[in-house]
């Protein structure tokens, strides 16, 4: 039953990530074609709750999706089972979340004093 729940959760996060990836790519293409510098981009994202929510949701979806994917790989290819498998999934998921959350905070609120 847990495997089915994780499978469904991974599919739901994939559905969530698809429009977020497209949005991110559209913004990056717009920024590059517009000739915006990194400082100009950060000037537009600093203090923006909208960008914080957009990229925060992206980070949560990626962390969950990636952790479940690595769990499946460890189980199928590595033969890892039980508590080690679950611990690895949680460690990877929390690690991805921590790295992503730090980046989102830095881009949206980190430069504010």
UniProtKB/TrEMBL annotation:
InterPro entries: SQR/QFR_C/D (IPR034804), SuccDH_FuR_B_TM-su (IPR000701). One of its GO terms (cellular component) is membrane. SUPFAM superfamilies: Fumarate reductase respiratory complex transmembrane subunits. The chain crosses the membrane at residues 12-32, 52-75, 87-107. Keywords: Heme, Iron, Membrane, Metal-binding, Transmembrane, Transmembrane helix. The keyword Heme applies. The keyword Ribosomal protein does not apply. It comes from the Bacteria. Its main location: membrane. One of its GO terms (molecular function) is metal ion binding. It is found in: Membrane. Its cofactor is heme. Membrane-anchoring subunit of succinate dehydrogenase (SDH). This is Succinate dehydrogenase/Fumarate reductase transmembrane subunit. It comes from Pseudooctadecabacter jejudonensis.
